[in-house]
Every structure is written in structure tokens, then in C-alpha cells.
Amino acid sequence: MGENITLFSEDGKRTDGRALDELRPIKIKVGVLSNAQGSAYIEQGKNKILAAVYGPKEALPKHISLPDRCILRCRYHMAPFSTTERKSPAPSRREIELSMVLRNALEPLVMTSLFPRTVIDIFIEVLQADGGTRCAGLTAAVLALADAGIPLKGLAAACAVGKADGKIVVDLNDLEDKYGEADMPIAYNPTLDGITLLQMDGIMSKEEVEQALSLAITATQKMHKMQVDALRERFSVQRRET
Amino acid sequence: MSITEQRPVISKLEQQELRRLLAENKRIDGRSPLQYRSISVQLGYVEKAEGSALVELGNTKVLAAVKVGIAVPFADTPNEGILIVNAELVPLASPTFEPGPPSEESIFLSRYVDRSIRESKTIDLSSLCIVPGRSVYSLYVDLYILDYDGNLIDASVIASVNALGITNMPKYVVEGQAIKRTDEYFKLELKDHPVSLTYAFLDDKYVVDPCLSEEYASDFTVSMTVKSDDRFCAIQKNGGGMISPRRVIELLERSVELGKELRTVAYRQLTGGNG
Predict the structure, then answer these.
(1) Which of A39, A136, A164, B26 could form a disulfide with B21 if both were Cys (CB 3.0 to 4.6 A apart)?
(2) Cis-peptide into B91, omega within 30 deg
(3) Number of independent structural domains in chain A
(4) Which class for B108: exposed (0-12), middle (13-18), buried (19 or more C-beta within 10 A)?
(5) Is the distance from CB of A203 to CB of B120 less than 8 angstroms?
(6) Collapsing DSSP states into helix, strand and coil, what is residue B210?
(7) Does A99 reside within a domain?
(8) Which residues contact A239 (CB under 8 A, 6 or more apart)?
(9) Containing structural domain, residue A60
(10) Does residue A10 fall inside a structural domain?
(11) Residue-by-residue DSSP string for B122-137
(12) In B, which residues are within 8 Å of A93 by CB distance?
């Protein structure tokens, strides 16, 4: 796989002209849906992803509730038209796994003990996929939670790092994701120095994983700033309206 | 939709005891924090399967069986055989396993084992092509969890690789348009011997190969699969909680060390004891 595909041009630039540690252009907007308590929209490269939060609300049926904290329900879903080949709208095994992985990545950020016996629903809908959808989806979902006014221990931003043609790169695009040697999605909270999402597949040595990890931390710190700016924009607009 | 899991309640006393012992670097079953439970591997347990292995990791019992067939290759990989890993959390293994469609947990388990085998290139799928674009070998690895006492991932990787390691592949011949099965067999060749190492985190301490009560009491687990050349082919944090980057690096080092030991024990029968 990938033998005939070159992921770097002669001057060492990536297929989309980026440097090794350069993120794709990112556009974030918070508060984009009218019915959801919180929502956010992200564009990262050609990714277009919506995230919405409903709750905290009464957990029904009652047996799913927990007496000491709220529970989270999370759905990661790709629209049928989001990929080159049409994707069946029924949840795939991959989407079921990612829904769980994303819930696990969001849960440690939420102050769940403040809302016992309730549920918070998080919906992540990928409208167009361009590699790294789980990370972009998570970055948006965190903002949707913040937009809903749910107390968080901190924000987290996510970014995939990996290895393509022997080089460690940040924010893999679709080609690098498909034909590269390794893909490592990471979500990181800079204030608590905590990784909430960590996955890797492909082949990397210990040293390469370490290098990728440090690149991911720098990248997610940059994205964290964008998240803060997006929230600021959202709430400064509201102030002017009232 | 993925929903916050309701873990079976384990008593406060047991939780406290686990943590108290761990503060002294001890564990509830007498192991040290970085010690695996005893591993036993029984090869060829199911004669009807082309390859199989029953693995016991302490009280955790996993049966892996490989069924070989022929199939039409996937359109994007016309020259490659098909590898499919499926995990059944059999209800008799635990009160928490329910009959019915595959749970999130079983999908996660089978996908992690799949990645461990596929990404490490343990099987050279391009060698399993019969007629490009038309006919390739299919390998179904079915994992049967028979008794659940924690750490299904590591036990399942060991069981799958052992089962694949003894898999007898029926030979097929191409006669015009038809593909016929012969009475001859060849051994499936393993290109690697990956092992997964799972760590459970309790507060700021961690243990390798968690038993069930440690798993229930833990904040989260991290699994890492290491290839024979000490490189990594799969990593996954599972469950809530946060881990610091420093800790991840520490786990990488541990996994390389512990992986060597585990590999010799887990695949002794395949490699004749030479790792």
C-alpha cells in the first residue's frame, strides 16, 4: 500500500503544501444551532463537523441514571455523503467504537457530580470527512459543552499526529491518514496536563511515539487558543445584543 | 449511542484495600505491580477449526479459532486476503455479558485485536491472494470469551496469534474459471509475534494485567501492542480519566521491557522457546 503515492514534494512540503508541524486552516464557530443547549461547528481542512449538546436533563429510563453524577451519551456519526463512496447511515463498527472513545475523552472534562441522576447527550455529526474527523469532532464537542453552560474542568483540543513517508507530521490529511505509516489521535488539556484521548495504529518506534506526542501537545495548545477565541466571540456577541 | 457504563459495584472495602496495598506496591492477588498472571496456552483445542488456541491468563479464559475460506477481495485491496476478527462476550463468562447483538465492549475488543494483528503485519495478506480481484483467502478469527477475570485484550491477542500460528491453510487450484479445494495444506506463516500490554490506573499508580476487581476499581486502562522489533503497532486509552504525557512515555518504556518477557512466555510453543 502507498508505494506509488508520494506524500511529500521535492522541497519537503506535504501534499497540501504544509510544513511537518503545520495545522490545516481551522474555522470554529460556537452557538450555531437554535434548539440545542450548546453547539459548535468546526472546519479543519475539508472536514465540516457539527456538534450539539442537550442537557443536563432527566435520565430516562430511570435505571440508566447514576445517583452521584450525571451520565454522558455520545453519538459520533458520519453523514452518508461525507465520504467519496456513500456510507450507509446505519452506525458502523467504527462509529460505535468512536462514540465510545469520544465519550471516554469528554467524560473526564465534565464536572459530572454537579448533576446527579441526569444525562447529557452529545451529538457529533460529520458532514464532510477529510481525515482526523474524531479529533475535529471532539474539539467541537468540547465547545458545545461549554456553550451549553456545563461546568468543565477545562477545555481539550484534539489533533491527530502520525508518520507519513518516514516523517512525523501533525494533523494528518486524508491521504496521509490512508497511506501513511501511523496515525495517533490525541486530545490534550493544557491546564491540567492531561491526555483524555489516546489511540495509535500503524507502526512507530518508542522514540517516534515520543516525538509525535510532543508535536501533538504543541498543536493542541494552538487549537486550545482558537477554542478560547471562539468562545469569547460567541459570548461577546451576546452581550452586545442584550 | 455510547452511554456511560454502569460498572458493577465493588465494595468500598475492596476498593480501599486495592489502593492501600498498591501504596505499598502490592496487589490483592499477591502479585507485584508489573507482574503478569500465569499464562497457559493449549494449541489446537478445536479440531474443526483450521487453527485454534485456548488461553488462560489467571482466571480469564479466551478461546480463539480461525476458520479459513475463500472470498471475493475488497475492491480497494484486490490482491490481498481478508482478515476479520470478531469477539463474542459469551453470556456464560460473566453476569455482565448479555446475549444479543455485539456490545460496544466486544466491538472495541475485536477492533483492537484486529489492529494489533493487521498493523503489525503479522499476516502477509498479499500472500493470501489466489486470483487477483476475484478470489482470495479469508481468515475469520473468532474470539470466544469463556471466563472473565479482567484483561481480555492481552489474553485475546495472545490467543489470536497462537491460533493463527498453527493455522493449516487448504490449498486451492485454479482450473479454468473454477477454483477447487485440494486435500493438501500449507502452514500460515507468521511475520511477527505482537503482544499487547494493558495497564490499569488507580489514582496515580498503575498495574499491568489487571484482574477484574482492579479493572472495575480503575479510572482507566491503557493498552499498548508491541511488535517483535520493539516498535508499537497499536495504543489505546480506554475509559475516562486523564493521563499525563510523562506517564505515557513511561508506559512506552515499560511495554518494551515487559513485552519481551511476555512474548517468550506467550508464544513459547510457536517459536520453540526462542522468542
Answers:
(1) B26
(2) no
(3) 1
(4) buried
(5) yes
(6) coil
(7) yes
(8) none
(9) 26-241
(10) no
(11) -S-GGGGEEETTTEEE
(12) 107, 111
Chain B residues whose CB is inside 8 A of the A99 CB are 1-2, 104
Give domain status of residue A9, yes or no: no
Is position A169 within any domain? yes
Helix (H) or strand (E) holding B152: helix B152-165
Nearest CA in chain A to B80: A1
| Domain B24-271, CATH homologous superfamily name and number | GHMP Kinase, N-terminal domain (3.30.230.70)
CATH of the domain at A189: 3.30.230.70
Task: Output the nine-digit C-alpha cell for B187.
Answer: 502452514
Domain residue spans of chain B: 24-271
Nearest residue on chain A to B223, alpha-carbon basis: A199
* pLDDT tens-digit map of B27-77: 999 999 999 999 999 999 999 999 999 999 999 999 999 999 999 999 999
Predicted TM-score (pTM) of the model is: 0.95
Strand partners, A202: A182
Cβ atoms < 10 Å from Cβ of A60: 9
pLDDT digits (tens, 9 = 90+) for A38-91: 999 999 999 999 999 999 999 989 989 999 999 999 999 999 999 999 999 999
Separation CA A22–CA A159 (nearest Å)? 11
**Residue A239 pLDDT class (50, 70, 90 cuts):** low
Alpha helices in chain A (DSSP H): 93-106, 133-147, 174-179, 206-241
Q: Tell me the residue type at B124.
A: D
How many angstroms separate the CA atoms of B26 and B17, rounded?
10
Q: How distant is the alpha carbon of residue A74 from its chain centre?
A: 13
Picking from A218, A73, A104, the residue whose alpha carbon sits closest to that of residue B201 is A104
Residues 6 or more apart in contact with residue B72 via CB below 8 angstroms = B134, B135, B136
Question: CB distance B4–A202 less than 8 Å?
Answer: no
- Asked whether the beta carbons of B156 and B87 are under 8 A apart, the reply is yes
| DSSP bridge pairs for A72 | A120
| C-alpha pair distances (Å), B110 with each of A89, A94, B106, B153, B224 | 22, 11, 6, 9, 15
Do the chains contact at B242 and A206, CB–CB below 8 Å?
A: no
